[in-house]
Design a protein that fits this description.
Number of strands of chain B: 11
Number of helices of chain B: 0
Structural class of chain A: mainly beta
Strand content of chain A: over 45%
Shape of chain A: globular
Oligomer: heterodimer
Strand content of chain B: over 45%
Order of helices and strands of chain A: EEEEEEEEE
Largest sheet of chain B: 7 strands, mixed
Structural class of chain B: mainly beta
Amino acid sequence: QSVLTQPPSVSATPGQRVTISCSGSSANIGSNNVNWYQQLPGTAPKLLIYDNNQRPSGVPDRFSGSKSGTSASLAISGLQSEDEADYYCAAWHDSLNGPVFGGGTKLTVL
Amino acid sequence: EVQLVESGGGLVQPGGSLRLSCAASGFTLSNYNMRWLRQAPGGGLEWVSDISSNSKNLYYADSVKGRFTISRDNAKNSLYLEMNSLRGEDTAVYYCARGTMATIPNWGQGTLVTVSS
């Protein structure tokens, strides 16, 4: 049972826009920044979005993040086949002294 | 270029012990807090433990507290995770990582630990 809640799966066709939601509480998302990770099959997670809406160097601007209250979302526009992966949200949890993650959302590009 | 390379994974019986290592390169390890995370087969990501740059502050997830010990040797550019009293639910790929709060820009490739008789 993950601390942050994500939909298990989403799907869309190439070129479309898709959003992935992430719900938490006042102890994590409500008081800390949200980060998003992309994990391609058989590889380590890769930082995709940090501090709610910032993209590390090299991440295309098709990826964007937002946060409101105790929820956050990741949007991917102009969907491409190579975007097919698992996506995880993460936030610091104040009482645990560690980061907590969502259960992951599998994105399928139809 | 930051590189983190884990080693030491393998098959261990329930109740057994294992020590994971992480070799760091491309940056000065002594300047950074470090952590271990894990991912069960087909499962999500789970934070395991954090260690401060000078080893004075150690933090553990409740699921491993009292059984796992994190340590580091800055002179050897290495991070370690000593795992005791292993259980089936500890079966996972273990990642060494560098990051701050929930922002983790650097991950190793992971090492698989399988706890089974």
